[in-house]
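Human: For the file, kindly provide a plain-text protein record giving the amino acid sequence and the C-alpha coordinates, at your earliest convenience.
Assistant:
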Amino acid sequence: MSSLLQTGTLRRAGIPREEFNPGNNEHRASLRKFLLTGNWGDIQFFAEEPYISVPETVMRKMALRGMAMMDD
Protein backbone atom coordinates (compact mmCIF):
# COMPACT_ATOMS: atom_id res chain seq x y z
CA MET A 1 0.00 0.00 0.00
CA SER A 2 1.34 3.42 -0.86
CA SER A 3 1.96 6.10 1.70
CA LEU A 4 -0.92 8.47 2.19
CA LEU A 5 -0.71 12.15 2.96
CA GLN A 6 -2.99 12.90 5.88
CA THR A 7 -3.25 16.48 7.02
CA GLY A 8 -4.96 17.49 10.23
CA THR A 9 -7.83 18.82 8.15
CA LEU A 10 -8.48 15.45 6.53
CA ARG A 11 -8.29 13.60 9.83
CA ARG A 12 -10.77 15.98 11.46
CA ALA A 13 -13.19 16.07 8.56
CA GLY A 14 -14.78 12.75 9.51
CA ILE A 15 -15.34 11.93 5.86
CA PRO A 16 -14.40 8.38 4.90
CA ARG A 17 -11.60 8.45 2.35
CA GLU A 18 -10.10 5.72 0.19
CA GLU A 19 -7.16 5.18 -2.10
CA PHE A 20 -8.36 5.85 -5.64
CA ASN A 21 -8.59 2.68 -7.72
CA PRO A 22 -9.09 3.47 -11.43
CA GLY A 23 -10.50 -0.03 -11.98
CA ASN A 24 -13.36 0.58 -9.52
CA ASN A 25 -16.62 1.72 -11.15
CA GLU A 26 -17.72 3.67 -8.06
CA HIS A 27 -14.39 5.49 -7.91
CA ARG A 28 -14.66 6.45 -11.57
CA ALA A 29 -18.22 7.68 -10.98
CA SER A 30 -16.93 9.91 -8.18
CA LEU A 31 -14.26 11.28 -10.54
CA ARG A 32 -16.92 11.91 -13.20
CA LYS A 33 -19.01 13.86 -10.67
CA PHE A 34 -15.91 15.88 -9.66
CA LEU A 35 -15.15 16.76 -13.28
CA LEU A 36 -18.75 17.87 -13.89
CA THR A 37 -19.52 19.64 -10.61
CA GLY A 38 -16.30 20.18 -8.65
CA ASN A 39 -17.58 17.90 -5.85
CA TRP A 40 -16.38 14.34 -5.28
CA GLY A 41 -19.71 12.88 -4.22
CA ASP A 42 -20.11 9.91 -1.87
CA ILE A 43 -16.56 8.61 -2.18
CA GLN A 44 -13.61 10.85 -1.44
CA PHE A 45 -9.94 10.05 -1.78
CA PHE A 46 -6.55 10.59 -0.20
CA ALA A 47 -3.75 12.49 -1.86
CA GLU A 48 -1.10 9.81 -2.31
CA GLU A 49 2.65 10.33 -2.44
CA PRO A 50 4.34 11.62 -4.53
CA TYR A 51 1.32 13.73 -5.53
CA ILE A 52 0.31 16.76 -3.49
CA SER A 53 -3.43 16.90 -4.18
CA VAL A 54 -6.35 14.55 -4.63
CA PRO A 55 -7.15 15.70 -8.19
CA GLU A 56 -3.52 15.19 -9.23
CA THR A 57 -3.46 11.71 -7.64
CA VAL A 58 -6.70 10.64 -9.32
CA MET A 59 -5.95 12.11 -12.76
CA ARG A 60 -2.47 10.57 -12.92
CA LYS A 61 -3.78 7.17 -11.85
CA MET A 62 -6.46 7.37 -14.55
CA ALA A 63 -3.88 8.42 -17.16
CA LEU A 64 -1.57 5.55 -16.19
CA ARG A 65 -4.49 3.11 -16.40
CA GLY A 66 -5.42 4.43 -19.85
CA MET A 67 -1.84 4.12 -21.07
CA ALA A 68 -1.61 0.55 -19.75
CA MET A 69 -4.86 -0.34 -21.54
CA MET A 70 -3.46 1.04 -24.82
CA ASP A 71 -0.40 -1.17 -24.42
CA ASP A 72 -2.51 -4.33 -24.05
About this structure: The mean pLDDT is 83.
